[in-house]
């Protein structure tokens, strides 16, 4: 994953994203968008309404988030719009932040860690899935 980190105010819906990490808070979200070119675009404090508006027009992509109360509602909406959702445990995010961001646990670093872990998972995912493995489109790791 690229080291280059770009700060933005809104989600550019014209680009395709490999993974989108979102750190959910009470009134807003922090978002890290990993483009197919390897750039990381970060948005600090995006309103839920802006996230939903952008997600409706985005090409299908993978969203990653930590488990919390807002997660269930958002996952249902995102999957209805054709996106894939992954739920990543807090311990995995914490380990990623410690290893890649000198242990500085901020909302933006959490969102970037979620995007990074999703990129790792997608890179290691086999191209052919046996029917005995089950549906991996939604899972926790």
Tell me what the structure shows.
The chain is α/β, with parallel strands linked by helices and 141 residues long. It has helices at 48-57, 71-80, 90-100, 107-124; strands spanning 5-7, 17-24, 28-35, 40-47, 62-65, 84-87, 139-140. It has a seven-stranded mixed β-sheet. β3 (28-35) and β4 (40-47) form a beta hairpin. The chain starts with a strand and ends with a strand. Mean pLDDT is 85; it is low at 129-136.
Distance between the ends: 20 Å
Shape annotation: globular
Order of helices and strands: EEEEHEHEHHE
Counting H and I runs of at least 4 residues, what is the number of helices?
4
Percent strand = 25-35%
Mean pLDDT: 85
Question: Largest sheet, described in full?
Answer: 7 strands, mixed
How many strands appear in the DSSP assignment?
A: 7
Could you estimate the helical fraction of the residues in percent? 25-40%
Counting helices, strands and paired strands, the structural category is alpha/beta
> In which order are the strands of the major sheet placed?
1-4-3-2-5-6-7
Spans of 5+ residues with little confidence (pLDDT < 50)? 129-136
Radius of gyration: 14 Å
């Amino acid at each position: 994953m690229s080291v280059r980190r770009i700060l933005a105010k809104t989600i550019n819906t014209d680009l395709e994203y490999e993974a989108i990490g979102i750190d959910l808070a009470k009134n807003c979200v922090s978002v890290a968008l990993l483009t197919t070119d390897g750039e990381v675009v970060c948005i600090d404090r995006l309103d839920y309404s802006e996230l939903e508006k952008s997600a409706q027009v985005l090409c299908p992509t993978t969203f990653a988030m930590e488990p919390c109360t807002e997660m269930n509602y958002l996952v249902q909406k995102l999957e209805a719009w054709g996106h894939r959702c992954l739920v990543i445990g807090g311990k995995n995010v914490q380990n990623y932040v410690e290893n890649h961001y000198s242990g500085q646990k901020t909302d933006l670093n959490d969102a970037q860690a979620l995007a990074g872990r999703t990129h790792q998972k997608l890179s290691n995912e086999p191209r052919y899935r046996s029917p005995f493995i089950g549906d991996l489109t939604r899972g926790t790791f």
